[in-house]
User: Which sequence fits this backbone?
């Protein structure tokens, strides 16, 4: 079961790379892709370029931390919990800060990822 959960977390981490793909413009944006490249918080303050750069950095960081955490879980390492906690928090904050502020296509904009992160945080809290 631990391996299955670890693989799930690994895949959850890799999904963050889709937003890196979008923020870098490696694919042409389509309306049904979800994230528009705009942030309700950052775009007006920093502009599109800086927002996209921050999206790339923080989504990549989320991926990396999830990969380390899932490897630790699969290898039955005690240090995996702080990494998993950090991954969930960084990912959640990134999703919330980079959300475009519109309620359409919430699943494509990271709602499921946010719910998975909350589930991870609740599980860590209750399974001390």
Assistant:
């Amino acid at each position: 079961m631990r391996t299955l959960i670890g693989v799930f977390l690994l895949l959850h981490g890799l999904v963050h790379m889709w937003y890196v793909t979008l923020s870098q413009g490696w694919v042409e944006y389509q309306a049904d892709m979800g994230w528009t490249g705009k942030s309700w918080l950052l775009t007006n303050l920093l502009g599109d370029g800086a927002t996209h750069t921050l999206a790339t950095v923080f989504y990549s960081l989320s991926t990396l931390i999830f990969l380390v955490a899932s490897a630790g879980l699969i290898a039955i390492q005690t240090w995996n919990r702080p990494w998993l906690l950090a991954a969930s928090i960084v990912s959640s904050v990134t999703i919330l800060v980079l959300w475009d502020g519109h309620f359409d296509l919430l699943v494509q904009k990271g709602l499921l990822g946010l719910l998975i992160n909350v589930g991870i945080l609740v599980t860590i809290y209750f399974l001390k």
